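Practice problem 4.
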């Protein structure tokens, strides 16, 4: 007769090795998220304001925030920004400063590279404290 012995208890399974870089999940950042980050980053700059509100093609006043459209593809983003500048701020240096600031902040906060920032200045606005003079 053959004797059967009870089955030996199963050894505990070894913990699974951590997933490799290729096996982990991927974080995707939506276009709208980048748009909001960029619109907020513009407010960090002096002499830069929101995009001008337009009626029938005429600027009727600056808005509260810059308008930003973002397109994210892979690890890069392209930004289209509409903003206003305080008069008499030089447009060239101000837009270049805004462009560099946006590239730095979006990269810092999202990890995305910014390949291009298109800036449209919708209005040159006067400070609210200035009174118009009629001669």
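Answer key:
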């Amino acid at each position: 007769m053959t004797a059967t012995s009870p089955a030996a208890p199963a050894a505990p399974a070894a913990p699974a090795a951590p997933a490799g870089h290729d096996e982990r999940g991927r974080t995707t950042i939506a276009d709208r998220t980048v748009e909001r980050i960029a619109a907020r980053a513009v407010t960090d700059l002096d002499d830069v304001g929101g995009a001008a509100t337009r009626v029938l093609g005429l600027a009727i006043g600056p808005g509260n925030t810059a308008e930003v459209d973002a397109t994210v593809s892979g690890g890069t983003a392209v930004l289209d920004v509409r903003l206003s500048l305080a008069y008499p701020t030089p447009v060239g240096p101000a837009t270049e400063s805004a462009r560099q600031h946006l590239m730095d902040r979006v990269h810092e906060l999202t990890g995305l590279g910014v390949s291009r920032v298109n800036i449209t200045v919708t209005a040159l606005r006067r400070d609210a404290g200035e009174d118009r003079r009629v001669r």
